[in-house]
Design brief:
By secondary structure, the protein is an alpha+beta fold. It folds into three domains: about 80 residues, Alpha-Beta Plaits (2-Layer Sandwich), CATH 3.30.70; about 110 residues, RRM (RNA recognition motif) domain (Alpha-Beta Plaits, 2-Layer Sandwich), CATH 3.30.70.330; about 80 residues, no CATH class. It contains nine helices and 15 strands. The protein has a five-stranded antiparallel beta sheet. A four-stranded antiparallel beta sheet has the order 10-11-9-14, with helices on one face. A two-stranded antiparallel sheet has the order 3-4. Strand 12 and strand 13 form a beta hairpin.
Length: about 290
């Protein structure tokens, strides 16, 4: 989907048409899927909305916070499965992690990533960049690969672990939230996997329907072609009968047989020339 898809959470009390109407204010939507499946008595009310152009996604994110029916909804860019890991898609954080940051010039590194968002803190030795907005981190991941001084630099999100949580518990900039702030850690990987399978099945169904329509169209074209071919053959038979009758109007039976022999011979890629057919061709050229 590139940079055209959004993840929207906190939608348990929002009808799908209300969500569609709200999102369409920011541009044309090509796809909208709302998840309301119930498992273990917990509703995971989230949706994926795909806009036609990336500018609509950027405008939607720039207008945060969003409220529908008086309740704030949570929005983030949806990272694609092919280029982002599961933790990268789930975690929302302001911190970007740079791999082997000290291999690059410090000022060059800072200038490059400063162009991609407002930096609150830059730790060159540890390879951390804290942005003011978590959306900056998602945009940077969507724009991978990144090159500094002609060399690719690997970037990812800060993924919390037990050790990192202990080390950074006193730093507010290291605070992490998850996709749905009201539900916190309730959304597990299996729910996203289930959502993906449903989306995949829906697309496969659309593809199968298109294949059926294509096959139906091909059959219709074949029928039309056959009808036209039959008509052409009949016209050709009539023409030759009339030609033979014109050449020798007193021998209908003979000329009919000659016509049938002539038509059978034309079905071959390279028919043999006989005195009879040669005579017909010469007479035809003379008449025309």
């Amino acid at each position: 989907m590139g940079d055209r898809q959004l993840f929207i959470g906190n939608l348990c009390n929002v009808p799908i048409e209300t969500l569609r109407t709200y999102c369409e204010k920011y541009g044309k939507i090509t796809d909208l899927s709302l998840n309301r499946d119930k498992d273990n008595n917990i509703y995971h009310c989230f949706a994926f909305v795909t806009f036609q152009i990336p500018n609509c996604t950027t405008e939607f994110m720039s207008k945060r916070p969003h409220f529908i029916n008086g309740e704030e909804i949570f929005v983030k860019r949806a990272l694609p499965r092919l280029t982002a890991s599961i933790p990268e898609r789930l975690v929302v954080t302001n911190r970007l992690v740079l791999s082997n940051s000290t291999k690059y010039d410090k000022e060059t590194l800072k200038r490059y990533f400063k162009k991609l968002g407002y930096i609150k803190k830059f730790n060159y030795e540890k390879g951390f960049i804290d942005y003011k907005d978590y959306d900056d981190v998602d945009r940077i991941l969507l724009a991978r690969p990144h090159y500094v001084q002609g060399k690719e630099i690997f970037v990812t999100k800060f993924i919390p672990t037990e050790e990192s949580d202990t080390d950074t518990s006193n730093e507010q900039s290291d605070r992490l939230t998850f996709i749905n702030e009201d539900e916190n850690l309730k959304i597990k990987y299996k729910y996203l996997e289930k959502q993906f399978e449903e989306y995949k099945q829906a697309k496969e169904k659309e593809i199968n329907n298109l294949r059926k329509e294509l096959q139906h169209t091909k059959e219709e074209l074949c029928d039309i072609t056959q009808i036209k071919l039959d008509k052409l053959i009949k016209n050709q038979q009539l023409f030759h009968q009339q030609l033979l009758f014109h050449l020798n109007p007193n021998s209908d039976l003979i000329h009919t047989q000659m016509c049938e022999d002539f038509l059978r011979s034309t079905s071959n890629k390279k028919r043999k020339t006989t005195p009879t057919t040669s005579l017909i061709e010469n007479e035809y050229e003379y008449l025309t």
